[in-house]
Amino acid sequence: MASDSSPINTRDGQSSPDGWPTSPISNTVSSPGDRPRRKRGRQSSYATPSPMPADSRVRTPQATPTPSSNARRRARARRSSATPTSTDDVPPSSDVGEGNEDDAPVVYVWGTNISVQDVNAAILRFLRHFREDPQQIEGKYMRMINHVIEMEGDSLDVDAHDVYDYDSDLYTKMVRYPLEVLAIFDMVLMDMVGRINPLFEKHIQARIFNLKSSISMRNLNPSDVEKMISLKGMIIRCSSVIPEIREAVFRCLVCGYYSDPVVVERGRINEPTVCAKQECLSRNSMTLVHNRCRFADKQVVRVQETPDDIPDGGTPHTVTLLMHDKLVDAGKPGDRVEVTGIYRAMSVRVGQTQRTVKSIFKTYIDCLHLKTTDKSRMDVQDPMETENEASTGDDDSTQKSEISVEQLKELSKQPDIYERLTRSLAPNIWELDDVKRGLLCQLFGGNALKLPSGASFRGDINILLVGDPGTSKSQLLQYIHKLSPRGIYTSGRGSSAVGLTAYVAKDPETGETVLESGALVLSDKGICCIDEFDKMSDNARSMLHEVMEQQTVSIAKAGIIASLNARTSVLACANPIGSRYNPRLSVIENIHLPPTLMSRFDLIYLILDKADEETDRRLAKHIVALHFENPNSSQLDVIDLPTLTAYINYARKHIHPQLSDEATEELTRGYVEMRRRGNFPGSSKKVITATPRQIESLIRLSEGLARIRFSEVVNKSDVIEAFRLLEVAMQQSATDHSTGTIDMDLITTGVSASERMRRENLVSATRSLIMDKLTIGGSSARVMELLEELKKQNLGGGAEVHLSDLRTALSTLSAEGFLAVHGDSVKRI
Amino acid sequence: MVGLPYDCLANPLGAVRSTFDKAMSSDSSTAALDGKDWGASEVFRQFLFDDGGLSQVPLLNSSTMKWVQPNTLVRFRGMIQDMLGNEFYVGAYKDGDKWITNKFADASHDPSNASSDMRIWERQLLYCTPVPGQNSWVECTPDAMRNPYISAISPLREKRQREDEAIKSDVDMVEPGYAIEDSPNLKKMRENGVAFEPFNLQKVVTEGSASNSSTPHVERDSVSCLVKIYDSPESDLKLNEVFEFVGIFTFDPDLTIPIDDKEVMDDFCEDELLCLPPSKVPRLHCVVHRKLGASDLVSSPHLELTTPVIKEIREALIGHLTAILGHDRLAAEYILLHLLSRVHARVDEVAVGKLSLNLTCFNKENMSVLGNNLKLVIGSLMPFTECLPLTVDYLNSVTLTPKKDYITNRLVSGLLQLAEGSHLTIDETPLQSGTLNSGGLENAQVLRSMMESQKVHYDFTYYKMEMPADVQFLILSEGKSNILPADLVLPFHPSSVDSASGVDGEMLKAWRWYLATMKSLPHSIDPPLQKAVEDDLVAARQEDRSLSREDFSRWLTMGRLMSVSFGATSLSMEHWQMVKELERLRKIRFQGNL
């Protein structure tokens, strides 16, 4: 027995043979042990709590170089079968605190009025009787213990909340004196296990987790030393697994006698100087036998504060964790974890050989439990996602952890969530509510679909904003860029679409420098915001064709064609030609974009500057206020940016709405309706008001709308709203100004049906005019003269005939071989 | 107060102890002193500020480091480059019946004879470096700071001791990882040292200084310091802020002994301080610290703050800038506004008050003269200036953002870790076409985002952390820079290229003071004028629809800076008109350029 208590005594430098006095008491408290072997083990570890605080709490540092009390306890348990020998070379000296215990019937935790027996009983009660649900016959932990025994596990996870609920006093004691209480806890556990299955050899440790309150790393202070704490952080470094010696066995070189296992004391092993065998007793003959020593795994892990805990202008704090046994490799760098452990401080010795210590302490956490905050939940099955997540920085997942899913769900239940989100989107930009709604749909996106046949339908919504300068298009773009999961913001002038690198280009004439970056690939699974879309080079634009429908980018380099994923939504904005939008011309004419590309945008918004003095004034006021007042412009009832981001990310990852039957019906009905609008009764004119592309757009939009509500089902109302959004956009961009109807030809070909009709009329009028005026091979006529003539005739349905129109007509005729145009003169062939 | 029983300057620890004893005698519980000051800092404050002791405190730099005594009071000016977290130490322990404090000291103690009673306190560790880009004139005149100990009773002996230490550290530097105690070299030197000390030492010292001077300019004065802060709320001290620390300089040879015991966590290089040997990085136990604003760094020229004086200085400065800029007065006006700009508010993502300037139309010829002159002038006016030649190779190779090195657990400084109010000149003229790799791309993006939002994203490997910055950007380029779009683009039209005339020191001082003082002036706008400005903006927009909120924002910033440049604290119509006139002239230049 003396040997059993020795590790405890010698550890603290002030030895006290407390193994003796406490043993009878332990017998009275715990159930009478019928197996002497066990009993001894129990007694010794039972005695631990009392001497421990003497050194650890008050003179902590130098006394606790071996931090894991768990491990020590285990070591003792194993050792219990060994026969007591003279390895204990510590002279017994009586400690004041312990001396009293000889005759005291109650054992107190040193320096407190916590009775060991009370705690013991409380733990026993808790383990036996705690039930989550009163109906359960067997206690929660009894079940778990049985389970652990079955699984031959070595630890029992104990929810601190359960402890608190059952016995708040025990919880308080546990948190304040973890070393002592946990030692008792393990004791009780061992005792119980021993009773359930006497043959169960393993030692079971209690792992406490889920404390009532967790502390921020920043607020750890000296008063927390030796307390049980829990904190959140991110693992930044893990050491390799260190085998730590726990028990050493020595062999005498002279006689071959194996010593008893020597337990680590204060971080070192005392090598016996004399062979213990009575017959031998040779000096300095003992050598370490490696393969009979016992080692335990140890790992040093550094944990850093999570970004959201860091105050302005601070750098993250770090703390060191010590992990043992099963906890080794429980987390890897980059994981967000919640750690429960005992905060400890250890003094630093000046030198290995010196006893002098610095006045500084190293602090670390002796880890009891490590929980990786559910990261997988946020991950998509897509390997690409996780890969990129690391490189682009975890900003969004960072914020997500703070804003709980419950909160988001709560938010989604609000009836006016759609309106609220619209309001919260770029609150600094007024009006443009329908544009914002469209952008919102883009942010949430539709469902991407991949058919088994290999055909895939994109879920990304592409939006084009066309409008006058100074209508805060760029601001909207910037805002979306900030909000979107993986946005790239680029200017059309500097986009090379492909390539992961960028190119610095210099205009040879003006010396202007431009950065060309490969935006599209970089924004895979995000939103690619392209400003000044109209100024994009043709080359880059042609790339967009592929991106916007097939969602891939092909790069041909060195004979290899690589197809890269570019599953991106495109949000582009363009300025009209001649800087101001000309309402007389169509969208296509206003911005110089090929119609093929235009048709790939789901929504095209025209943002026109209405030269409204009121808006100007509001802008002026706002900016003046920004500069001169202490701007705390409080926007009421607006969802803040992090929440919004979290909301969108959550929806994008977890909500995959399906069309309901009702919605499908509405979709078909609406589409037919739209198509029908193009047929004017009694007119041969066929206007296409909707194309199959629109159906796809509508589906995407309504899916996006359902996502906004966190709904797994697309409702009829979503479809109706999608129709409305589409129509609003189309009304602005695809309206034929001469007839006032929606004409998809405008977008798909750039020419409206009525325009085409008008052109045909003009061509025939010109033809007949030339037929009249000119003879084959005869004199030539000037274009201006023809224009005058035509104007006089007033052809083309009353509309003014423009020189450009005439020129188009003439070129059509010359292509027919009807006439030849040389500069300004027209000649009939 | 009549004569203190201790010398705050030479024996600050004595002051600490005596105040501690006094506090203990009045209230004998040490627990009450946990995390509190017992009046020691009050004593020092009184000594430093009320009794004018501050000027007697030597400023720590590479030259003074040679003779400053350990455990004396020193000053250190620097930027907080990294925060190393908190450190727990034995704040007070009982020796026999008497409590002894360890505050402001690094003492070690023997656990065997220490009684069981002690208090653990904490202190904050800051790693401070000289402010990046600090111009030489900012340093206090070092001559006034000659060694006060030279006239002490046994000056030679003391000095030698220090030199001895200096050599020690030199040797330490030469042979890193070599334990001083075990270094045979040193042992030999010591043995011989008794006899040949004077010669031997002299030689080593000169050698040492020679090698020192060969190191680049920046290195010469760069003394970094590990500052230990006591009893100060964390929010007081922020990364990248410039502070003056007054504290007790310690040099404890005990701590230089490399700890080679493979104890629990040393394979981890757990102790960050190991990477900062005290021989290279002195420790400073800070007693008093104060934040240095722009005006604290320049010496006041003893001028009265009256409008005519300010106007006069402004006129002279504009004249000087005009001369430097080849008689381009418009550019001079803009430069002045630019130099006065600072971020005074942040709303959402917008940093209000910044005014980055892009001077275009530089070419190789005038760059070498005018550009360099401009850089020199800015260097002589602003306390912290940095230049960055932008080339593709440079962008590809350099790391601009600070990065956390998890192996040493330190923040590795990048070029863009700049103190508040720094000035950064980016010379884009050498930039040629070329391909940027991913690092270069990142650098370009970092520069751009820093310019646009005055924020730098520090790289913490697993995430980026946004750090607010306040840096003035001046870009010199051939054509408009689209890589770094500045708030203001001004075609530069020098009429002559002549090297500027010299300026006398008094004038420079006045200008520095002017810039620093005006920059920090508060500013407001009166409601009637606010209305007028709003009307102006609305009218301008009715006329020219292409005006965006950026333009408005710029005008208002300029309006503010313009009136500030005249020492006014509120915007007046006159200044507003001046801004409009400047913008009109600028616009004309653009038209002329096309």
Automatic annotation (TrEMBL), chain A:
The keyword Hydrolase applies. One of its GO terms (molecular function) is DNA helicase activity. Residues 382-396 have a biased composition (Acidic residues). SMART domains: AAA, MCM. Its EC number is 3.6.4.12. The keyword Ligase does not apply. It is found in: Nucleus. One of its GO terms (cellular component) is THO complex. Residues 1-101, 376-401 are annotated as: Disordered. Component of the MCM2-7 complex. Component of the minichromosome maintenance (MCM) complex, a heterotetramer composed of MCM2, MCM3, MCM4, MCM5, MCM6 and MCM7. Interacts with ETG1. PANTHER family: DNA REPLICATION LICENSING FACTOR MCM FAMILY MEMBER (PTHR11630), DNA REPLICATION LICENSING FACTOR MCM4 (PTHR11630:SF66). Belongs to the MCM family. Belongs to the disease resistance NB-LRR family. This is DNA replication licensing factor MCM4. It comes from Salvia divinorum. The gene is MCM4.
UniProtKB/TrEMBL annotation, chain B:
Keywords: Nucleus. InterPro entries: MCM_complex-bd. GO terms for cellular component: nucleus. Its main location: nucleus. It is found in: Nucleus. It comes from the Eukaryota. This is Mini-chromosome maintenance complex-binding protein-like isoform X1.
